[in-house]
Queue: 2 jobs
Job 1
Amino acid sequence: MPSSVVNAWTQWGRLETVVVGRADPLSCHLPSEPANECEINDPDLARAIAWPGGCVKSSHAVKMATAQLQNLCDVLEAEHVEITSKRSVDTELKREMDKKCSLILQHPPDAQSDQRVVTKHRTVTFRTEETDWSQRVSGPGWSVPSQYCATCPRDTMITMGDTILSATMSKRSRYFEYLACHGLALSFWRQDPCRVRYIAAPKPSMKDSMYSPGFWNWTKEERFSRMRDYMFCVNESEPVFDAADITRVGRDIFVQKSMTTNDSGIQWLTSSFPHLRVHPMHFPYDMHPSHIDCTFVPLRPPTAGSPGLVLINPERPPLQSESALWFRNDWKFVNCANPATWDRPAFSQSSAWLSMNLLSLSEKCVVIEENELPLFHLLSDLDFDIVTVPMRHMFDFGGAIHCCTWDVKRDDTCKDYFPDIADSWQPAHMEPGYAFHDVDVIGVNLDHGGKLLNPVPISAVGTAARVASLSASGR
Ligand code: DAV
């Protein structure tokens, strides 16, 4: 039987159908609200203007992001892409950068050609529905001046096997964002209603009682000293999660506890997907965790004679205790190369690690940002085919190449990539009052520029031992 129109169990199965976000003309800057306080990155601009929360984004920003998202669609739909080295101006950074540029070829190169061409399959692309995000939205007891945008369907939607799941979200301004994907989700379901499931997680109340407003007043040092408490701006009173905090590895899914996903949300996923094994993950050095796809990116599974690979963020190593499962099952973690630049656009609320926000087209082929040469070389050495796209104008819109997509169909199955998990495996226990304090991370090495940067100046380069000593001293 051919697989269903909706099918995705992994991050790397051959990508057949994908939804790409849209930078709508009435996209807005995130408004301030209990789950969100934004800062302008450029100090001069920040002195001159307040965060423009709720205001429509500039037409220039929309135009540039629109062009980059359309180019991504064209590249995904193409079969042959020529990769060339270039030095040219990056329009967002406004300076010359070394790049690896991709040029779509209409025909396969002839056998004599010395072009470096990636030949891949065509991925069918759909786009989110154009929406006016500039209107105030309200629920009982709350109201925000605008919504946000639908550049990042990854945050709201996830395909879990044969099921389309829309996430709860935790920001009020993003409560209705799934509607930009709703028509598409319904049409996928209608094509195969006996096999495809389309479900929504319980809608949170978004009342003040869901949030811990004190979080925003903690200094960096306070956050660092409290890192072992894993307490963020959303409390545990209702389950919440963003879909982008989940990463899929066949029969197992891994969910990051974060600013946007609480224990209760992970517990809801655990009980609602009993055929999957749900594993919480913690990255104690990330003081503002939000979305696992700039932190922990499974690239390909173990095969006979070669370990599975996960790209990890060297500033945010995973816990030793949660990594052991991976190592026992023949997975290897590779430090991501440092970003090509640490510069961030003025209105971006994400880190420079959007550099590692890649999209796998298969376990052999990935799409990365065209300026990210350090990552390009790392992945080449690991024997990947690499397609590049310009994507920096998306950084102001909340994400990059993985964020701006929602993979609907991959050629993969519910395979067990962790065969040493016993049949008697029980999900992590997360009752009310559950507290998790582990901060022992895996050893941090210097491969590919890897270093662990603490926000505390006296320990500019940190170690697991440093964190342990802070724990022991009761901070
Ligand atoms: O590292 O700032 C950004 C993820 C955006 N969806 C980061 C994560």
Job 2
Amino acid sequence: MFGKKHLLDIKSLSKDEILQILDVAKDMKRKINVPSLRDDSLKNKSIATLFYENSTRTKMSFMLAGKYLGATMEDLNISTSSVNKGESLIDTGITLAQMGVQAIVMRNGYAGASHLLAKNVNASIINAGDGSNEHPTQALLDAYTILEKKNISGLKIAIIGDIANSRVAKSDAICFSKLGAFVYLYAPSTLISKRMEIFKNVKVCENMKDAIEGADVVMGLRVQFEREKNVKFPNVDEYYKYFGVKDDAIKLAQKDAIIMHPGPVNRGVEMSTSVIDCKNSLINEQVKNGVAVRMAVLKLLLENG
Ligand code: CP
């Protein structure tokens, strides 16, 4: 039994709850690969996606995850919705719940928006990214992807890029640390804060070498230009030169180091094409695992509700 109604963040999940989701995801991945194994365990459930920010991976994988389990899936297109007539987030959520929606998968630019909806709407709320706060299903799929290749406990995981604005970096750091890994962060000093070290087993590094040397996993992050009024570095070429993950940096990591990126990737900004497409890159596998993990989340939250 999974005792939660909502999935709002990684912070409030125990290690056992994380492992339970990942265990169910293993079974879900088999169902993706072999359609005849699929069941319709969510056939009486209606799920809405409510994305106030752009998305390809998260929205599409939730839509497919629900459909693979037999749920009715609907997307509220914010750009043509009554949000543009001034309807509030809470009223929008209540409206969806009144139509019989049992779960709302929500992405919003404001940190805490999904918590607000969970307090005010009678439906399961799944946080698909809230501002710079958390992106729990991304962390779960990242952990799942690592666990398919390596035992995560004791690993050195380097995360390089725009840490300050990244909900992925925060959820990943908390998730990996709960599973026993050590997380090393590196970014321009304007895009990182020492405050990340409040999380257990998380270290903010002074240079790329300290972050990547001996790493078992190297993850790049997109620069989130949309979250900054003023760009926090001189220009993209300089960013790539000093902070982009390229072959020379990867040579410092373990030979079998896994390369990851939550996407969307900007080639030649946060990572070189040769790194993105190298044989150890699991970036495409992350996308596939996203469907399995989101199937597991929907099943655990809704099946017995
Ligand atoms: N990783 C991620 O959240 O991608 P999307 O913005 O495409 O959903």
